[in-house]
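Thread title: Can someone regenerate the structure for this chain?

I was given the following input by a collaborator and told the matching structure tokens would be attached. They weren't. Posting the sequence so someone can regenerate them.
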Amino acid sequence: MACRQRPGVGVGVVVLSRAHPGCVLLGRRKGAVGGGTFQLPGGHLEFGESFAECAERETLEETALHLTNVRFASTVNAVSVKDNYHYITILMKGEVDFNYGSEPRNLEPDKNESWKWVKWEEFPSGDQLFWALRSLKEQGYNPFEEDLSHLVGYTGNHLYMKEENLL
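Best answer:
Regenerated them for you:
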């Protein structure tokens, strides 16, 4: 993999559903980067696209779910030096639109094992989460609150970034 000169920009989506109270949609990554870790739906921000448009598009492309009430949730600076990975990820939050199908389908089986509704408090440990999601959990983010207090004092540093730099 060639050395990146600048971070990538991604959008992750915290998907909620009234049919699954207290849960967030969670998948397990396949592939060389982050394979086996748990992730949210999401992907690259396309040129000219808003954060909300990206969140809606990526969720639909990956899960077949349409979203409503899409809004900003957080932003994280995720770095894995040993993997030559550095992304700024904008996290958006949205609810499943029940005017369409309300259960996820795995539309990218080459990139993701499956989608499951998981209680936020029962998420896997941080070392099992893909970097952006791990960073979001480290911030103290709560998807069931609308305030942004988890961002107060956020500097973009995360423990695993420091640990990896010592290796």
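The two ends are 19 Å apart (CA to CA).
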